[in-house]
Amino acid sequence: MDLRSLPPEIGKAHSDFAGLLEACTDLDALLRLKGAYLGRDDSFAARMMDTLKASPKEQKKELGIVINALKNQWEEALKSRQSNLEELRRQRAAMSLIWDVTLPPPLPSRGALHPLMRLIDRLADVFRPLGYHVEEGPEAETEAHNFDGLNIPEDHPARGSADTFYFQKHTDLLLRTHTSPVQVRVLKRLAPMIEQKGGIRFLAPGRVYRKDEIDPTHSPMFHQVEGMLVGRGIGMQHLKGTLDYAMKALFGSSADIRFRPSYFPFVEPGCEVDVRCPLCSGTGCRVCKSSGWVEILGAGLVHPNVLKFAGIKSDIWSGFAFGMGVERIAMMVSQTPDLRLFFENDQRFLAAMGGMD
Ligand code: DAH
Fold first, then answer.
1. Beta bridge partners of 134
2. pLDDT class for 337, splitting at 50, 70, 90?
3. How far apart are CA 96 and CA 113, in angstroms?
4. What pTM was estimated for this model as a whole?
5. Residue ranges of the domains in the chain?
6. What's the gap in Å between 323 CA and the centre of ligand 1?
7. pLDDT, tens digit, for every residue of 54-98?
8. 279/337 Cα distance (integer angstroms)
9. What's the 269 CA to ligand 1 centre distance in angstroms?
10. Domain 115-355 sits in which CATH superfamily?
11. Helices (H) and strands (E) in the chain, counts
12. Which atom of ligand 1 is nearest to the CA of 267?
């Protein structure tokens, strides 16, 4: 093709064309190239038409043939590249649906124990070497076990329907408000064997219920772990030694505990136990509210009435008991500010709390 009668820029454009076409790897780039060569305005084709218009009459025919040939050539090449690219795009889309059978399969998610259950298991592991086994009691409990057997007086405010969920049909039944009724059940069951066993010791984890509004630190259902030991000559020193051991096992060897006098009808004396804040080692932080200590459980020496109710001679046997809030400890250890996270079961929270077990 003789391009000499056209401006030199057209000759250059034509020799660049094949390379530029090759460089178009997607349809957008191709459209841009098409615009630059064949577009109505400001394209090489438009400029050729201007040249044609301005050319002397006798050259027009020949020049017109050259221009048409050039445009046709570009057009054909663009069209075929376009269909290539469209085919490529179809193939890519199809490829993305194809399974690569040589890839290792995604592992099925295995599920895991809930962080609260893991903490309960850990507590059981801490107490097992001391001879404690795990007991369970019903969540729908009788007043006799939840209150009477624990020396809780008839007029105690906790018995009121403002604090306790009562069943409407079975008026004697309620949702247990603590795990302490398991004490009553286990003592009654093991009383006939106490001599032969040399005492009783157990842990009783489980759900408890109270009429509390849900907020960052309250829930109408939460978990407690009850602990009890009955033996001969048991005193506060045994309780203190046991809890000291347990808290060191749980929080590390620098853990420290302190006792504050408190009152629970089923123990005498009763106390509340604080642990030196495991997060700041007692120097003061948000979790311990700058006091250096956090309360983790209620405890005391088993009230003689509790032993008597169960048929155990309180002049021979004595013991200690304690009850701790599982969520409270979990929140402290994990620095979780909102109790509700433990019940919402957001997979991201659960994974952050320890993931797969
Ligand atoms: N049952 C008590 C509560 O829910 C906790 C408690 C205090 C348990 C003293 C005990 C104990 O065994 O000795 O608040």
1. 203
2. confident
3. 36
4. 0.71
5. 8-96, 115-355
6. 4
7. 999 998 999 999 999 999 999 999 999 999 999 988 888 888 877
8. 13
9. 12
10. Bira Bifunctional Protein; Domain 2 (3.30.930.10)
11. 13, 9
12. 13
